[in-house]
Amino acid sequence: MSDTISTIRSDFITLMGQMVESHGLSPISGRIMGLLIFDGEARSFSDLATELGVSRGSISANARLLVARGSIMKENRPGDRQDYFRISDQSFDVMLQTLMQRMLDMSGRVRELSDRLPADDAEGDGPRRRLGGLSQFYAAMALGMRQAQDHLTGDE
Amino acid sequence: MSDTISTIRSDFITLMGQMVESHGLSPISGRIMGLLIFDGEARSFSDLATELGVSRGSISANARLLVARGSIMKENRPGDRQDYFRISDQSFDVMLQTLMQRMLDMSGRVRELSDRLPADDAEGDGPRRRLGGLSQFYAAMALGMRQAQDHLTGDE
DNA sequence: ATTTTTGTTCAGTTCGAATTGAACGCAGAT
DNA sequence: ATCTGCGTTCAATTCGAACTGAACAAAAAT
Fold first, then answer.
1. B146: distance to nearest CA of chain A, Å?
2. Domain A5-87 class in CATH
3. Which residues does UniProt assign to the signal peptide (chains A, B) (predicted)?
4. Which of A8, B19, B26, B80 is least surrounded by Cβ atoms within 10 Å, i.e. has the fewest?
5. Per residue of chain A (156 residues), what is the pLDDT tens digit?
6. Residue A46 to residues A39, A42, A55, A87, A128: CA-CA distances in angstroms?
7. What is the CA B35 to C1' C7 distance in angstroms?
8. How far is the CA of B13 from the C1' of C7 (A)?
């Protein structure tokens, strides 16, 4: 079988590169996260560029973004000028939080519009009600994610 | 104030064009849905092209996709060869279902990889555990969306 | 028969996000 | 002082998804 650990590792990194697009991140950001999740320990800036086969410029930009989000952490070691990165304990939570925030934003924006609409005429059915429904939809999604969050942090 | 209904309608359509990107749809698909949600009633193929200011080719492709997803419905009227479209009652549910399915897929794909990994050595901490955690993460997201679904269909 | 209306198809174009790569500044080593 | 290694920056490039628009087929109207 070709099921060596390094094959799985490589597959996982590729998979992460694809999956994170639904989180609004670039492929390289996903692959960085994938590599750091798999390895667990801290890896150097150069390692990332070499192992992922991408330019240092890309590592710089993407790593900075991931650090800002709280998905990964930058470490600096005395006597070593290289930057090291490791996956953050909250990396999953950050993903969840980000998605949840986006849902709340959408809910709010739709609610703003629906609130400016005059009351629907006749028996309930009108634009205001429909937009209100969409706003509720996003609010329910956000709530569902909060429950997912509770579920994940609860039994640990 | 410039808060005429048509302004709000236009803003909502624009907003939908932006929001649906997180659902993996194109801007035009979102604007079609936005227009149909706002108006509630059925609109003709030509109306959509004219009001949204896009090519008929785009309407054709995007409307077909939305019909296939179950987000909108095509109507044909006797003695009128135009196609009419209206928002589907399940349009919100389809969005939810789609996202939930994606989460389940991700959970499964990560699980596949983690299952091929040898048991972690030492005290629990290893790649297998971390990938397992990610798989659980996506599973929890899917569960959260099911709860959102229940929440939405429950109190109506 | 011819013209018009309607939706589909697909080759070409547009557009922007992602990535590259070279220039740069900084800091330690020689 | 010079050189080397490290990370940042930004102009240029790549690449693909989204969109266009013209050609087309089908069906009704003239």
1. 8
2. mainly alpha
3. none
4. B80
5. 668 999 999 999 999 999 999 999 999 999 999 999 999 999 999 999 999 999 999 999 999 999 999 999 999 999 999 999 999 999 999 999 999 999 999 999 999 999 999 998 878 789 999 999 999 999 999 999 999 999 999 755
6. 15, 12, 10, 16, 55
7. 20
8. 24
